[in-house]
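Protein Record: Sequence and Backbone Structure Tokens
======================================================
Tokens: labelled as protein backbone structure tokens, with as many entries as the chain has residues.
Task: work out the structure tokens from the sequence, keeping to the layout shown below.
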Amino acid sequence: MRCPYCGNEDTQVKDSRPTEDNTAIRRRRFCTACGGRFTTFERVQLRELTIIKSSGRRVPFDRDKLMRSVQVAMRKRPVEQERIERMVSGIVRRLESMGESEIPSAMVGKLVMEGLSSLDAVAYVRFASVYRNFREAKDFEEFLGELSGPFEGAMREEDEDR
């Protein structure tokens, strides 16, 4: 494993253990050249996935990109990182277990929307604004009007607190 600090390829594993959800191995590493310490994660990959963009372009699936997009939606929200990680791992497992190696980006977006709906209403709306390409305030109004169930009550409670 290459050191992220100096680029040296001679690093040593100091500690290995499974992550809390047992979907990966967490390894603490030490660089013999610069002394830097860093962590890597080793995950099982059932198959190589390719995402088919709406433009028809095909790109390799990138779990880190998925995690970054969820993190942007979750920014400054009171949700534990562990729950976010579990949600992303669950999405990846669902994608891998579909039996298809090529998956439309809309399917990934749908799974993220499902996951965020159970984690945080604000993050759900944030992600939807990008996923559904909201352009005007009325797009938000229409989307919020479509929401029902657990969010409707939660949003009313937030309004009453103000």
Notes: Strands lie at 11-18, 24-31, 37-43, 50-52, 58-60, 102-104. Residues 151-162 have pLDDT under 50 and may be disordered. The longest strand covers residues 11-18.
